[in-house]
Design a protein that fits this description.
Blueprint lengths: L1 E2 L16 H13 L5 H7 L3 E2 L4 H12 L7 H7 L8 H14 L4 H10 L8 H16 L2 H10 L8 H14 L4 H10 L8 H13 L8 H10 L3 H9 L1 H9 L4 H6 L8 H17 L2 H4 L7 H6 L11 H6 L4
Antiparallel strand pairs: 1-2
Helix pairs in contact: 1-2, 9-11, 10-12, 11-12, 13-14
């Protein structure tokens, strides 16, 4: 059993003289046992040669035991077909056992590994464990590390010293509290995976836009800036979103600065419809009706106060599903 995959093979079959029987068996196995489409199986067979089913059968059994479903398997193997040639006991099992011991459930592993199969190609001792330990040193709890990894599985592939530490240091140097750093990595881990130059450019733009590094909204602004190009942000900031919220809805500009994520939403599909509903509720007296229970509800609608100022924790706010 040989393959061209660099991670698990010490030899390869020459692509100039492939064995037709190996091609046939490989494509058949990928289709019938792994659920790949004939086209995907044919493509994967260019990187993989299977001779017998014993090794790949063992790999599939192990993956299924650790949460990879039949629906996720094709996605994983399209990206990383040579995984079928890994030694299940020596190469794969220690990685799966480690992650499972750190609060990754089987469902978590299925979701994360099917999204980023190359995690299983990385060294346990040199990459996976050090990266996990670093994330835990920041996030404190294993379950919080899992939460961050579910949002961005590729964070387990990062070179921590070269790519993540410099960003955290840069934030600390401008006064961003540790609680905000934790919030960023837990909820928006993809931001610390940006190229360092891009990240520093975004932080500079956020600072120049008037956001206070001491407040959580600074992190929200970084996330919003990271999700769109500079030209798009400038257009939303100067024209569409701001114009509607200030001139049509009566918001104060300071309120928009407190909630910059608003400008990351579609004006036509989200901002206008929801603001219109809110305005109707006010006109019909629904907001006034509940002022005895939440006295600042009208001020919240007008953007004069933020949700955090009503006593809700940031964790509670992020836990609410967006409609």
């Amino acid at each position: 059993m040989v393959a061209k995959g660099r991670f698990f093979s010490s030899s390869s079959t020459s692509p100039s003289s492939p064995n037709p029987n190996q091609y046939s068996f490989t494509v058949s196995y990928l289709t019938n046992s792994c659920g790949l489409s004939p086209q995907s199986a044919l493509s994967a067979s260019q990187k993989l040669r299977l001779v017998t089913p014993e090794r790949p059968d063992s790999v599939l059994t192990l993956l299924r035991n650790y949460g990879i479903t039949d629906a996720q398997l094709p996605k994983l193997l399209r990206v990383f077909p040579s995984l079928l040639l890994a030694d299940p006991e020596k190469t794969l099992l220690p990685k799966l056992e480690f992650l499972h011991s750190k609060a990754f459930t089987r469902a978590d592993l299925g979701r994360i590994l099917s999204s980023c199969p190359l995690i299983l190609s990385r060294s346990l001792d040199n990459q996976i464990i050090p990266c996990h330990n670093f994330l835990k040193s920041i996030l404190r709890l294993d379950k919080t590390v899992v939460s961050a990894c579910k949002r961005s599985p590729r964070i387990l592939l990062e070179n921590v010293k070269k790519n993540i530490v410099p960003k955290i240091t840069a934030l600390q140097e401008i006064g961003v509290p540790q609680s905000s750093v934790v919030f960023l990595i837990k909820h928006y881990p993809y931001v610390v995976q940006l190229k360092n130059d891009k990240f520093h450019e975004i932080v500079k733009e956020v600072m120049e836009s008037g956001f206070d590094p001491l407040k959580m909204v600074f992190i929200t602004a970084i996330q919003v800036f990271a999700g769109m190009s500079k030209s798009t942000w400038e257009q939303k900031w100067r024209f569409t979103g701001v114009d509607f919220l200030v001139n049509k809805m009566g918001w104060k500009l300071s309120a928009i600065i407190r909630v910059p994520i608003t400008l990351g939403y579609s004006l036509e599909k989200r901002i206008i419809p929801r603001c219109s509903v809110g305005k109707v509720l006010i006109l019909k007296g629904f907001v006034i009706k509940y002022q005895n229970h939440i006295p600042q509800l009208l001020n919240l609608y007008k953007g004069e106060v933020g949700v955090l100022e009503l006593g809700f924790a940031s964790e509670e706010i992020c836990g609410i599903k967006q409609l």
